[in-house]
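Interim report, section 4.2 (structural modelling).
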Amino acid sequence: MLNFNYYMPTKIVCGRGCVVREGTQMQALGTHALIVTGKSSAKNGALDDVLTALGNNGQRATVFDRVTPNPTVACVREGVALLVSAGADFIVAVGGGSPMDAAKAIATLCVQERSDEEIFAGGYEAKALPMAHVPTTAGTGSEVTPYAILTNDFKETKTSITSPAMFPRIAFLDGRYMKDLPTMSAVNTAMDAFSHAMEGMLSRNATPMSDMLAKESLRILYPLLPGTKGETTDDERDALLYASMLAGMTIAQSGTTAVHGMGYCLTYFHNVDHGRANGLLLGETLRLCREKGVPALEEILSACGDTLEGVCATLDDLLGVREDLPAAELREYARRSAQNKNIKKSAYEPTEAELERIFMASCHTSR
Amino acid sequence: MLNFNYYMPTKIVCGRGCVVREGTQMQALGTHALIVTGKSSAKNGALDDVLTALGNNGQRATVFDRVTPNPTVACVREGVALLVSAGADFIVAVGGGSPMDAAKAIATLCVQERSDEEIFAGGYEAKALPMAHVPTTAGTGSEVTPYAILTNDFKETKTSITSPAMFPRIAFLDGRYMKDLPTMSAVNTAMDAFSHAMEGMLSRNATPMSDMLAKESLRILYPLLPGTKGETTDDERDALLYASMLAGMTIAQSGTTAVHGMGYCLTYFHNVDHGRANGLLLGETLRLCREKGVPALEEILSACGDTLEGVCATLDDLLGVREDLPAAELREYARRSAQNKNIKKSAYEPTEAELERIFMASCHTSR
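Predicted structure of the assembly:
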């Protein structure tokens, strides 16, 4: 029996040069943009294109380029303060997951006040400033999700905040901005997208729509993964960005699961890149799914066109030398992860012992 | 190179009993609903469920149940007048394509005045009353498109009006309302959905997103087509409604093509049911696509899992005895269709002679 909801109101505008060519689509968003970006995100041509498009529209712009990876509440507060002092009435996010997630939090918190303690308490109203997002990596899919993932120092992890108003109004996809992406970023973000598509299918909240999107994403993305370690073509970058967006549309419906729930520990305590953290944990998670007979696993492998060990080998090749963390620490991460809400969304919910096994197999090489 | 736009902001709520169970989602739409429906659409339980849900929300309701197949401008005017006199501020459409399309036109024309002559002139602003749609047939997909197709007596055809605000806010999908659908309606609407998915892929405006949606629709729909001639199960009706919605999402991106462009003549001049008109013309159109080497045809057949002649035989079986219309008349329809904007959207644009051949092969059995 079919029983699901689906909602993804973001307008997707995809194509080389689309920000300037279709920039008039931002006219309805407001009169003065706060551009939320990071120091390096700004150097790939995307910021220039956004400024050109806003200029063509006669819209003002104030640039906030101080977003760092895994954005903090303090960073979001700084953005809100700049937005208010500049008098901006809409937001354009330019960059990877961190600027996009910070932008969503800024767009929400500037119209819904919260103390630091309450930021992660949920219950946000569907109210936020309108946004356009310009992703410059193919990984997060944040341009088509209603989630902002922030560093949560209270719980020593990363936590999402969400409301339906956090879907951007417009997402501009132009693979050209990924041309000079460092190889390590290309590899890590691709693993993030891959994890989104897989976790979407391994979620209790998977729906026929999210499965359709995930399979299409995997069909496009999986064959491109090995190539992210080297030079990619324009067409490959376009395809990676498209597949990452499909994976974002997937988790906009299903949410993420155990891999993300565990990965946040590696990022919070060891500063492991978010996509890499997912990539590290993915293989052993899939092996556990095979043991537990999770039906979606076979559909995932069929979409990839590979075997379980083939997928694991592809990931191993992308990861190179794995982190080697002490067993006691990994045990502690298993204990912490077991409390994470993403774990409970897994079609097969791993026990704490199984989480420990995944951590050990993934990040303890000195056995 | 990927180059496309995608937009489909309707929230889809799918599941048995969803109108009442998730009826609170209509709370944000307004205080007083005009329910737009037809005499028979109202008898499958959907109208009762909508009235219950609105009652639970403390919302008022006025019923306009005078929508007939292939709604006219006069019918739309009548709906607008009732809406205004009742003081309704949102619309709930209940029924097949006719009530849904009439509802969209009412929602638009009550906030954008047009003379009868200007109704089909295009250029509508993105402004309409908010709507919820409850489809009770699996064919039109109108619940997820921004189009309203009305009878156009000026041009003696059916013509669409559109604006982004004509996407319903919510679509409630519950296959139970199709339980007592007459067999002929079940067959004809299924052929309409089938045509939408196929035409989406045969459109010049096909995109990677619309192709993904169309293929998923065809994979689900095609094996179910023969069964629409007999008793269907609950699960089959759910699947038909879902596939029809996917086909609607397809044409929301790509629009329709030659088959619809030609079919409107059969409906306007001979009152042939809309879905049947498409079904009649589809087989020979596909044969022309094969001759012209249209690449999407092979993808369509692969999604159906059948050969071209297998698909044609399936359609023949659904259609039964074909209409037999005079050659001179069909020649005239070819001439008229050649001017239709949908024809020009076909990946292979048929010449007038080819349109005549399709009409003759499809509706001239006395050769």
